[in-house]
Amino acid sequence: MIIDVHSHVGNWVPGSWHPPRPPQVAGWVRTFYDLIELPREEFLEHHLRAASEVDRMVVFAIARGDATALNDEVADYVARHPDKFIGFASVDPTVHGAVAEAERAITRLGLRGLKMSPVYQHYDPTDRDRLYPIYEMAQAQDVPILVHQATTYYQFANLTDAQPYRFDRALRDFPRLTLILAHMGAPWYAECAALVRKHPRAYADISSNFHRPWTWYQALLTFYEWGVMDKLVLATDFPVITPAAQIEHLFKANAIPRAAGLPTIPEAALERIVSRNAEEALAPIL
Questions:
Q1: What is the pLDDT of residue 39?
Q2: Residue 89 to residue 87: CA distance in whole angstroms
Q3: At the topology level of CATH, where does 3-285 sit?
Q4: By the 8 A CB rule, do 50 and 259 touch?
Q5: What pTM was computed for the model?
Q6: How many CB atoms lie within 10 A of CB 155?
Q7: How far apart are alpha carbons 117 and 99 in whole angstroms?
Q8: Sheet holding 3-4, edge to edge
Q9: Tell me, what's the pLDDT at 155?
């Protein structure tokens, strides 16, 4: 089964938040903002077209503040396409009542995972008082958490909070928690590979790395050499890119090493990212 574990809904969702559009950005970032800022129905047309390229697609929004209306909207969208979308709830741990809202979204709305982001929601992922009740709930409900644990162009983000190792203690304290680190922990690829190797239920998604071909190849090779290619899951960060285009870029990762006589990544390992790994990571909620 081909599952895209990382896609966004648009800014029309009440309470949805994305970093302000930077003045000078690469083409892929322009594409993201051009689409994310579209009116509701126009955006959903693009989103549904992209979703048609995979069997299932995880969808969510990012909240800064109260996530109630945002999660209601995501749940409504998923309910209209239940065989295609897997809805994740957004939770902002800096807000009073975050645990209750996360639990409501899972138990009452039928959303099946959580989306969080230390660098955008401005929290320390090692903050036990704020985070451990959320991790405890997610582990008890056996739902995954997808976390943006990577760098960002957002000026006011704290990059210390973005480093993959920041989750090592939580994963030791919650060994049955499924955690997916977005963007392969960029640029801390080796750190991310070491973390997912250490923890059986930790994974990394491959989104938003394709646009740096040399780094993309090196990141994939790092995970291969660490023996954790089975911990990489297909993801697009839509509307950054569509699933078909992401898969094409994945198999193009060997173009540079082939031309330069460098080590390549086995095609079977790349194929596993596309067709198997996400299904294994999300098995408890499928």
A1: 86
A2: 7
A3: TIM Barrel (3.20.20)
A4: no
A5: 0.95
A6: 8
A7: 15
A8: 3-4, 56-59, 85-87
A9: 87
Both tokens assigned to 273: 């990212």
Residue 186 has, within 13 A of its CA and on its CB side, a CA count of: 20
Looking at this protein, which amino acid is placed at residue 141? Q
User: 141 near 113, Cβ under 8 Å?
Assistant: no
227 phi and psi angles, rounded to 5 deg: 75, 30
How confident is the model over 200-205, as a mean pLDDT? 99
Cα atoms found within 13 Å of the Cα of residue 281, Cβ hemisphere only: 33
Separation CA 139–CA 142 (nearest Å): 5
Residue 35 C-alpha from the chain's centroid: 18
> Which residues have a Cβ under 8 Å from the Cβ of 6 and sit 6 or more positions away?
58, 146, 182, 205, 207, 235, 236, 237, 238
> Which residue, chain included where needed, has tokens 């969808």?
59
Q: Write the CA distances from 176 to 137, 206, 284, integer angstroms.
A: 11, 22, 11
Who contacts 169 (Cβ-Cβ below 8 Å, separation ≥6)?
Answer: 126
